[in-house]
Design goal:
The protein has about 170 residues and is α/β, with parallel strands linked by helices. It has seven helices and five strands. The protein has a five-stranded mixed β-sheet, with helices on both faces.
Length: about 170
């Protein structure tokens, strides 16, 4: 059985980290304790509701709120890129992450395995904070080699660079 792990990378003044879905390794309560001890300002869940139910994490958002940790749920299918409703919600979530990072805070992003979807969001945040896509992906994969699994995920993350005025 794998242990729950948090994989951090510096972004701006703060830290963005990737992790698997709490409970995936079999001990949801222990995983929640690891997250609380890491003290994120914001947790971004990229898993679907079905995935959360399957892994025993149906109460995850409530558990985070009870610990005074911000939570955003942006469900994306496994190996997928954000559907229109998640893309529409992204600016608000991105702004909340940027606020946390500006004050040297921590943002934890998870998907089921802690690789593709969570890597996509971590990479997007890195690019939104001024990193070049290729360099950011290399730096992210040095911390989490499986980060960003599909071309669609990479394309969505890289859209941030195309939106910057300096691009």
């Amino acid at each position: 059985m794998r242990l729950f792990a948090i994989h951090p990378v510096r972004v701006g003044n703060g830290t963005v980290a990737l992790s698997p879905l709490p409970g995936r390794a079999g001990n949801y309560l222990q995983d929640i304790c690891v997250i609380r001890d890491w003290q994120p300002d914001l947790v971004i869940s990229m898993t679907t509701e079905c995935e959360m139910l399957h892994e025993g994490a149906a109460a995850f958002g409530d558990d985070l709120r009870a610990a005074a940790i911000g939570w955003a749920h942006l469900p994306v299918a496994d190996f997928g890129a954000p559907p229109p409703e998640v893309q529409a919600a992204w600016p608000e979530v991105s702004a909340a992450a940027a606020q946390a990072l500006a004050r040297a805070g921590r943002v934890l992003v998870h998907c089921r395995g802690g690789c593709g979807r969570s890597g996509m969001v971590a990479l997007r945040l890195m690019i939104e904070h001024g990193e070049r896509p290729e360099a950011a992906l290399k730096r992210l994969r040095a911390v989490r080699p499986c980060a960003v699994e599909t071309d669609g995920q990479l394309d969505w993350a890289a859209q941030a660079a195309r939106a910057r005025p300096d691009s």
